[in-house]
Write a structure and sequence with these properties.
The protein is 76% helix and 0% strand. The chain has one domain. The protein contains 13 helices and no strands.
Amino acid sequence: MGVWRGLLIHERVFGAYIACTLIRLWFAVGFFSAHTLVYAAALASVAAAASTTRGGSMRAWRIRLGFYPILTVILFVHLRWVSPLINNGKRDAVLWEIDRVLVGGSVSVMLEPVISPLLTEFSSFCYMFFMVYLAMGVLTYLFAGESLARVFYAGLFSLYGIGYFGYTFVPAIGPYIVYAARFSAPLKGYFMTDFLAACYAAGTNLTDIFPSLHVAASGFLLFFDMKWNRRRFWLCLIPCAGIWFSTVYLRYHYFADILAGFAAATAALAIARFARRREERVGWK
């Protein structure tokens, strides 16, 4: 209980995701499977990272917080092998049906009349810009003041914990593969379109659809910047709107993923506000 009380909000949320997946893997393939042991090590590393700030220095806090972008990437890649072990197939048909109920069909199909090479290139640029914006946010707030860094990381990496719960309980590949036959108009662009297609094929873990973390994380970053980095908020407003549009235009996501992404971003912003109030009670640094 002492370790639990000492954890930050995002450490609890992400730790809960790791513990849940560890248990599911234990039942599916046994505790001594290599995949289960990866999650056991990840859970132990959460506790170890939490112990780095006993001295209270800003450098120690940066190590503790900066551990989470690394852990997030490792577990994202590992999900390619983990998801098939703990799930019985994909849920693309469920998400496609939800879209039919909500909006009468696939938004990606509905957008086919507006497809053009320039719009495809712009959408591809925005989709790739997400990684740049995410890196900027993670690094700039890590090197901000101690309290602001904790507030930002509380929101963003709680969001990733929530997102990974979605990935493991609603695994899906995306309409661009599963329902490729439903699309009649090809997406043709220029350099950025081809570059994104190559990167996406190499980077997807084949389960990273629900919720859309492109939508969720960019939404969280944008509205966090609206409070703490107004200049970057205005610079990134149009690219973020492009990110949200591109997720369905490029056929990577279902409309249900987008709604879930905005809901996750809203939850993460609420967590960040809670973390801020706690920081203000103990003394903003």
